[in-house]
Automatic annotation (TrEMBL):
Keywords: Membrane, Metal-binding, Sodium, Symport, Transmembrane, Transmembrane helix, Transport. GO terms for biological process: amino acid transport; sodium ion transmembrane transport. It is a multi-pass membrane protein. It comes from Mesorhabditis spiculigera. It is found in: Membrane. This is Uncharacterized protein. Its main location: membrane. Na(+) binds at residue 21. The keyword Ligase does not apply. It comes from the Eukaryota.
Length: 259
């Protein structure tokens, strides 16, 4: 920027951009925490102001340590350990639930009732065909959005991702900043902090299962899926087409007119 005309102006604009970027990130993260706490219980909404102050104070006290002489080492520790394993485990579980459990559940159910009519490919490929349409030719049958290749990749990805994740967890790197090497205790604390979000999710899962038992796996009554299952919508009556609509049907045969 020093080679541009009016370098002081570009330096000022760059500083303002970084300042607003940091402020927007801090505001969004803080409001996310506050909203999750306040919406978790009806009684918390009456103390929304106090909860906001407590969250801001806790975040301030936690960030003050970054301004000390040891702050750069803590930043380096969090930068190296933050979220890698937790994010990998979360993505791996999503892949397993969708590509294996959800996909094979319908196939196993159909096979148990009538083995000759079992779909064999499960729900996922059927859902993809419902969303993107059936394959139009031999090429899209194998490499299309609902083709066999896409389905096979979803099957193989969890296995490969799990192997990489296990290797990463079994060989934690030794952390260091410049010439200083962190002790073993700092490594454990860093990975504990970085994967704290995963531990919180697992803790809430165990808590809800213990408290609610089998009801924890049912669809919540306020969820849109429950409303659709309990109150199925009636199909709209057919609309009578006029001459203009008939002409549109001839011009756009692949795009039926919405009722």
């Amino acid at each position: 920027m020093s080679n541009l005309p009016y370098p002081w102006l570009w330096n000022l604009l760059f500083f303002i951009m970084l300042a607003f970027l940091g402020l927007s990130t801090a505001v969004v993260d803080t409001l996310t925490i506050i909203t999750c706490i306040v919406d978790s219980s009806e009684s918390f909404r009456r103390y929304a102001t106090h909860i906001t102050g407590a969250v801001c104070l806790a975040l301030f006290l936690g960030s003050v340590t970054q301004c000390t002489n040891a702050g750069i080492y803590m930043v380096q520790l969090m930068d190296d350990c933050n979220g890698g394993i937790a994010l990998g485990v979360g993505i791996l579980l999503e892949f397993l639930l969708i590509a294996h459990y959800y996909d094979i559940a319908e196939a196993l159910g159909s096979f148990s009732t009538n083995p000759l009519e079992a779909p064999g490919w499960g729900r996922m490929r059927h859902d993809l065909q419902a969303a993107f349409g059936p394959p139009r030719n031999m090429l899209t049958t194998f490499v299309g959005k609902s083709g066999y290749l896409f389905w096979a990749l979803w099957k193989v990805t969890p296995l490969m991702g799990g192997a990489v994740l296990l290797y990463e967890m079994s060989t934690p790197p030794s952390l260091a900043y410049k010439d200083y090497e962190f002790p073993a205790l700092a490594n454990w604390l860093g990975y504990l902090y970085g994967n704290l979000t995963l531990l919180v999710v697992i803790g809430f899962f165990v808590f809800n299962v213990v408290r609610m038992g089998p009801k924890a796996f049912r669809v919540h009554p306020t969820h849109p899926s429950y409303i659709k299952m309990s109150h199925p919508a009636r199909p709209p009556p057919p609309r009578r087409l006029d001459d203009d609509d008939d002409q549109l049907e001839l011009l756009l045969p692949d795009r039926p007119i919405d009722s």
